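Design job #97: recover the sequence.
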């Protein structure tokens, strides 16, 4: 998308890096332009409103000036901040994982409003509503897979068309579902009980406004989160650095 010399956009700060003595380069996930990198002059020294609006995990309104290939933030005002001093390290790490997912799946200058809405809502439910982190992680990972073109076929058994049973087997390599009567070899397939399958179906198929409105036991959320993580990893063949850290500090 061709950008003007001056424009305003709303975006989430997903990465920050100090440049030189006093400047900062921030990566934004913006509504209109997808991923956008921009410089913030004097950001390190100024304890200003603008500086806070340009901090990691903050969703702000930005005024941006383009000069050649470079973008520079001239104004910034916080809309919502998901960062707080002393926040739980697991929640912080999970938010950083969501930031990495955004930078991997969303293109530069390619808007992806559905993805942004997902990330903002997930951060909201994590940091403000204090929802169980593995559940929010699972919702985010699996919905990302669906909106990024890695949608599995969860409607029915791939072989006989049965859609309800106590257990199903999920082949994560090709995203297909198979029932126990049609399974010849369970090797490499993941068992889905009723709770897990209906949660996965809900995440994949529900309208966005209903996406977060379901409850499952914590134990199920933990196993769901393992499944969605493995699925996203297998499908994309990508190793997320922030995920390694997250998994090293959690005890699930
Ligand atoms: Zn079957």
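Job complete. Output follows.
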């Amino acid at each position: 998308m061709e950008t003007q010399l001056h424009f305003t956009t709303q975006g989430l700060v997903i990465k920050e890096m100090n440049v030189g003595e006093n400047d900062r380069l921030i990566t934004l996930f913006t509504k209109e332009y997808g991923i956008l990198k921009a410089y913030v002059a004097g950001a390190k020294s100024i304890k200003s409103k603008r500086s806070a609006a340009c901090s990691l995990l903050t969703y702000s309104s930005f005024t941006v000036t383009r000069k050649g290939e470079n973008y520079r933030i001239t104004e910034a005002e916080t809309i919502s901040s998901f960062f707080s001093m002393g926040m739980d390290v697991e929640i912080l790490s999970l938010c950083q994982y969501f930031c990495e997912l955004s930078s991997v799946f969303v293109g530069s200058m390619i808007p992806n409003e559905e993805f942004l809405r997902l990330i903002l809502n997930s951060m909201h439910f994590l940091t403000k509503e204090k929802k169980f982190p593995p559940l929010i992680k699972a919702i985010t990972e699996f919905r990302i897979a669906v909106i990024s073109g890695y949608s599995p076929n969860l409607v029915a058994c791939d072989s006989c068309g049965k859609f309800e049973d106590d257990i199903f087997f999920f082949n994560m390599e090709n995203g297909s579902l198979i029932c126990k009567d049609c399974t010849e070899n369970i090797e490499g397939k993941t068992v889905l009980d009723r709770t897990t399958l209906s949660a996965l179906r809900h995440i994949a198929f529900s309208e966005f406004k209903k996406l977060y409105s379901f409850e499952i036991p914590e134990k199920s959320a933990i196993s769901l989160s393992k499944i969605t993580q493995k699925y996203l990893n297998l499908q994309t063949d990508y190793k997320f650095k922030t995920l390694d850290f997250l998994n090293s500090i959690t005890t699930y």
